[in-house]
């Protein structure tokens, strides 16, 4: 039987938010933990990992994709009355017992969250944006899990969104680094 880790590891690309270190370790900058990740190990989020001195990061899937009122994000002053296409992946750099999205955020941390594999859907950024436009979305948001740890994917989605005239947003715990903030800046 294929494990959730094997499924997720197959849906990765080489990351951009890291520094390679001389001994094969990598230093990840996706979140404030700034994980030092040794070869064959994972960061605190469990979805970013070191494979032979290369940081591998989530890519090409969603665990959730939904069009909802923008106010539900909750952004009350961003295009009031509009809809937002919200997408999420798996993993988080926090482990909050009260998380409303526990199944997706705690993937690979808690065996009971392995059920999240059933919700994965491979998709291209352009497909997501086409779907959002068809649903009448004016905003695209990365949410559900912690978006900072999937920033490479979010930036690819946001580039397509901007081309289509959509606004972009993160619903985050805010545990960001200056490097990821620069990376996300337009």
UniProtKB/TrEMBL annotation:
InterPro entries: Aldolase_TIM, Organic_radical-activating, rSAM, rSAM_sf. Keywords: 4Fe-4S, Iron, Iron-sulfur, Metal-binding, S-adenosyl-L-methionine. SUPFAM superfamilies: Radical SAM enzymes (SSF102114). The keyword Metal-binding applies. GO terms for molecular function: 4 iron, 4 sulfur cluster binding; catalytic activity; metal ion binding. Residues 90-184 form the Radical SAM core domain. Its cofactor is [4Fe-4S] cluster. It comes from marine sediment metagenome. This is Radical SAM core domain-containing protein. The keyword Metal-binding applies. Pfam families: Radical_SAM.
């Amino acid at each position: 039987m294929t494990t959730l880790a094997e499924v997720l590891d197959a849906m990765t690309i080489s990351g951009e938010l890291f520094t390679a270190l001389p001994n094969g370790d990598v230093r990840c900058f996706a979140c404030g933990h700034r994980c030092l990740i040794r070869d064959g190990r994972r960061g605190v989020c469990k979805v970013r990992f070191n494979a032979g001195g290369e940081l591998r990061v989530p890519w090409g899937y969603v665990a959730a994709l939904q069009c909802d009122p923008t106010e539900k994000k909750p952004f009350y002053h961003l295009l009031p009355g509009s809809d937002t296409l919200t997408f999420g992946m798996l993993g988080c750099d926090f482990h909050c017992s009260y998380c409303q999205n526990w199944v997706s955020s705690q993937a690979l941390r808690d065996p009971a969250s392995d059920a999240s594999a059933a919700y994965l859907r491979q998709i291209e950024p352009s497909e997501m944006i086409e779907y959002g436009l068809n649903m009448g979305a004016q905003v695209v948001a990365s949410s559900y899990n912690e978006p900072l740890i999937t920033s490479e994917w979010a930036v690819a989605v946001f580039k397509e969104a901007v081309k289509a005239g959509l606004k972009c947003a993160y619903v985050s715990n805010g545990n960001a680094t200056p490097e990821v903030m620069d990376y996300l800046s337009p």
